[in-house]
């Protein structure tokens, strides 16, 4: 028998310590609790030490040691393969369903518009989107693609498809996986900091998020799939962790894998493996050792390779928006680039404030009770307003690709509709490089449409981010910036054409030359706006040059990114993800936030002067019944163990969950345990009466080295310790005598109070 009394030769009963056998459930955590990083790392060190020592004893043990060391790399391989395959599936399906709103391919309904026309022999380069095999819904119903009736039919079906897709998405989320909504990055950041949210990275969430992400993107809502792809990759990693014991049983080790999975998510969403690793390091990870960096790099590489093998974009390239600008940028162009940075910072600060205000209104009013109605109303408004304008009708990725495009001689886009040049002003053109030219009527029309598209995108994105469907923010933010950048770029181009004599242009922009590249301005604007919203810097620049292949434009991207961050930080310190973490009340200690108040540990610890005395357990004079009464009367996640109530000399700390599991186990498996049985935490228990019930020895679950601070420790140091060591609580002592306890929640409430925010907004333990 695993527990209980074992008879000895002299008739005395020997008690087995519960330490001898592992008890199921001990060392695990309840939902909405914070893990103990120190304990988890200590457990992993002990496990590794044991494997290493055994490996010297036999060949089998040596093979097990090698297998243990290799398991991390194997897990990274599996995460990369699964994430890359899912990303390819999502890209292909979303592209097809987006085109389905406008028409269908007669040669095969599973072909999207682009693939349908590739196989046609009647497609011309100028009209490569038109082919007999692709029919709009109006052509199928009334036989003509032109005219008022055709326009109305296409309009109505576009709106109906959008409503159907969004209705399916919100219904699936509500019915099967409520955690599948939103971006997922705020929650991933919170989980990586040590918080437990059961089911957030489960198989149902993965399945529903994958399906509804395709539906949400295809509906035409102003959202992207890049943020949710991080959530999808982390779900894959969490599920695959269960195949390996060392990751299944250790929450800290699992979070190392999730950090690498976040890198894979960005790698497969953008085709940017290095940017993905830097994104995980800069933006989402809480604990990122060097080993995790290498494994993230490997996993991101595998994910990118898998995506490239699937070739979802059909262009044999990994990058989403490949650009090939012919003209180099000039130093004086840094002025408009910095202006785009200022715009990006202003947009970022405006978006965060308005979106958080709207989401708070949703949480605190009746609006939050009708998520399906809200999604349908936002979809209806988006579809009705988007269809008349071709730049809002197309998907976010298509729009950005169009805006990044550098006009060539054979381009049929309205953005490339320039008038003929005046030979008196310009010299002759040669090759495929086009000199700056006067804007034609098509370009003027496109500019007005882009102005309307900019206003539409700015407003609708505020109401879209946060609704109950999967919704990313990267593509909408980039679209806003790309539109603003393209408008400014065309303005600069026309300035250079009509006023080449201006002193600021004379030195580097000669008449007839290709001086200004509007597509580059769109790229810089997209970077600035995404930086203003997320406050990313290094990872953003790397993602953008990987995304476009524009390696020589790093300096303009860096200038715009830093400017947008400075401007946005001046108007509000939080990025969008930190703001949503605070809105949801997650217990997340932001490493970027400075603690500037002069308070001490005694000002924050509990119990306060008006509170009841601190609930403690004594070392060896409490019974099982008394311990169960104390646990039932309180809701704390753990209890300090002291020598006695009089001395309050600290012995250790025990978790509530471990305590309950051990006592329940002892009642089931240890013979004679009753409510009067003593609970012993000491190494040398006092002598027991011969006829008394057997005691329950719980030293194995006692943390003998809990972290302590003195009552006069400045809170600035306490906060720093909590951040860097990932603590869930610290005990407060005075001359070795226990005074109180500080938890992560206490610190967050105190910081909220000092910042004049509602301290009760910290929802979870």
Report on the architecture of this protein.
The chain has 765 residues and is mainly alpha-helical. The strands form five sheets. The protein has a three-stranded mixed sheet. A three-stranded mixed sheet has the order 6-9-10. A three-stranded mixed sheet has the order 11-12-13. The longest helix is centred in the first third of the chain and has 42 residues, at 59-100. The radius of gyration is 31 Å and the shape is elongated.
Overview features:
voltage-gated chloride channel activity; CBS domain; 3-stranded mixed β-sheet; 765 residues; 6% strand; chloride; 28 helices; Chloride channel protein
* CA-based shape: elongated
Biggest sheet: strand arrangement: 5-7-8
Roughly what is the average pLDDT, rounded to an integer?
A: 85
Instruction: Give me the secondary-structure category.
Output: mainly alpha
Number of strands: 13
SSE diagram, text form:
Layout: E1 5-7, E2 13-15, H1 37-54, H2 59-100, E3 103-105, H3 113-118, E4 134-136, H4 137-142, H5 148-176, H6 185-192, H7 203-218, H8 226-241, H9 245-248, H10 251-270, H11 273-284, H12 290-310, H13 334-364, H14 371-386, H15 390-393, H16 396-404, H17 441-464, H18 474-498, H19 503-506, H20 518-534, H21 538-548, H22 554-571, H23 576-584, H24 601-604, E5 617-618, E6 622-623, H25 624-633, E7 638-642, E8 650-655, H26 656-669, E9 678-680, E10 696-697, E11 708-710, H27 715-725, E12 729-734, E13 737-743, H28 744-754
Parallel strand pairs: 5-7, 9-10, 11-12
Antiparallel strand pairs: 1-2, 3-4, 6-9, 7-8, 12-13
Membrane topology: Multi-pass membrane protein
Family: Belongs to the chloride channel (TC 2.A.49) family.
Pfam families: CBS, Voltage_CLC
